[in-house]
Design goal:
By secondary structure, the protein is α+β, with helices and mostly antiparallel strands. It has two domains: 2-96, SH3 type barrels (Roll); 105-309, Alpha-Beta Complex (Fumarylacetoacetate hydrolase, domain 2), CATH 3.90.850.10. 16% of the residues lie in helices and 31% in strands. It has helices at 59-73, 75-83, 113-119, 191-197, 201-205, 251-258; strands at residues 2-8, 13-19, 32-35, 87-89, 93-96, 105-109, 128-132, 137-138, 143-145, 153-154, 157-163, 179-186, 189-190, 210-218, 229-234, 237-243, 269-271, 293-298, 303-309. The strands form three sheets. Strands 1, 2, 3, 4, 5, 6, 7, 8, 11, 12, 14 and 17 form a twelve-stranded mixed sheet that branches. Strands 9-19-18-15-16 form a five-stranded mixed sheet, with no helix packed on it. The protein has a two-stranded antiparallel sheet with strand order 10-13. A hairpin with a 4-residue loop joins strand 1 (2-8) and strand 2 (13-19). Helix 1 (59-73) crosses helix 2 (75-83). The longest helix is centred in the first third of the chain and has 15 residues, at 59-73. The protein is globular, with a radius of gyration of 19 Å. The two termini are 36 Å apart.
């Protein structure tokens, strides 16, 4: 499934749902959306905590999968739910960040071999872990505002995964059992804040600094997460172009390493680092300005587009 969080303007309401694969391009955000939280579908099972929709062991997600499969295979059921208003055309909705307030938003620094070479730094011996505040998260087509006093705003196209099952001290061979799915992230960074502070929290966690989306593709949608093209375009010009086969620490290694000391929970987001081509490493540097359009594109995960605003 491609799980999405979206707002319908009329009548005004916000929902969790999934794209129906029989409509629209597999990687796109056109076609139709099945609303999980609609009264005609799983409305009575809607969990009190939105993060429960991402829990593989929870009833809500299990029933959502069952319903999605039924609608996909049964044209009559699809017609019934469409008539009831539980299936909507994607053109009628505003896509939001698929997880608007993750419990934890963890990031990995210097995790692409080609980016480490670009930066002139040694290959790390262990994952370099830092965090963003969950309040940084914005969705597709949301604006990213330049913070007051920032003169060196940068982009970072990143491949992220979402935890779907509680993970504590997980062995590497069992790590993928704890992955719900994958999505695009833009690790927006204020380089002047980051380098002046001597640590990364402020420079990575200003408002709007974690664009995410346009959907979470569940694990079964992606045959090999370590063989995906990843690209970043600035105003249509390709600035980053690499592949997740360049990851130093893959998804399984990251889960095993992080869960040794930090319990991971459903709805947690882990962004795995950026490939070469970031703005500050260019000669001369390229920093984001008012009106710039940023696009993160990853094979199978769609396009995450955001505009920079002063």
């Amino acid at each position: 499934m491609r799980i999405a969080h979206f707002r319908i303007e009329s009548p005004a309401s916000t929902h969790i749902g999934a794209f129906l694969p029989s409509n629209g391009a597999q990687e796109g955000t056109d076609g139709q959306l099945l609303i999980f939280s609609h009264p005609s579908t799983l409305g009575e099972l809607a969990p009190p905590d939105a993060l429960d929709w991402f829990d593989e062991d929870g009833k809500a997600l299990k029933e959502a999968r069952r319903l999605w499969q039924k609608v996909r295979d049964d044209a009559a059921e699809e017609s019934r739910l469409e008539a009831a208003g539980a299936i909507v055309n994607a053109s009628r909705v505003q896509l939001l960040a698929p997880i608007t307030r993750p419990g934890k938003f963890l990031c990995i620094g210097l995790n692409y071999r080609d980016h480490a070479e670009e930066s002139g730094m040694a290959i790390p011996e262990r994952p370099l872990l830092f965090s963003k505040f969950s309040s940084c998260v914005v969705g597709p087509d949301d604006d990213v505002r330049i913070p007051e006093g920032c003169r060196e705003l940068d982009y970072e196209a990143e491949f992220a995964f979402v935890i779907g099952r509680r993970a504590r001290n997980v062995a590497r061979e069992h790590a993928f059992d704890h992955v719900l799915g994958y999505c695009c992230v833009n690790d927006v960074s204020a380089r002047d804040f980051q380098f002046a502070d001597g640590q990364w929290q402020r420079g990575k966690s200003c408002d709007d600094f974690a664009p995410m989306g346009p959907f979470v593709a569940t694990r079964d949608e992606i045959a090999d997460p370590h063989a995906l093209g990843i690209r970043f375009r600035l105003n249509g010009e390709t600035m980053q172009n690499s592949n997740t086969d360049q990851l130093i620490f893959g998804v399984d290694v990251l889960i095993a390493e992080i869960s040794r000391h930090i319990t991971l929970e459903p709805g947690d987001v882990i962004s795995t680092g950026t490939p070469p081509g970031v703005g500050f490493a260019r000669k001369p540097p390229v920093y984001l300005e008012d009106g710039d359009v940023m696009e993160v594109e990853i094979d199978g995960l769609g396009v995450l587009r955001n505009t920079v605003r002063a």
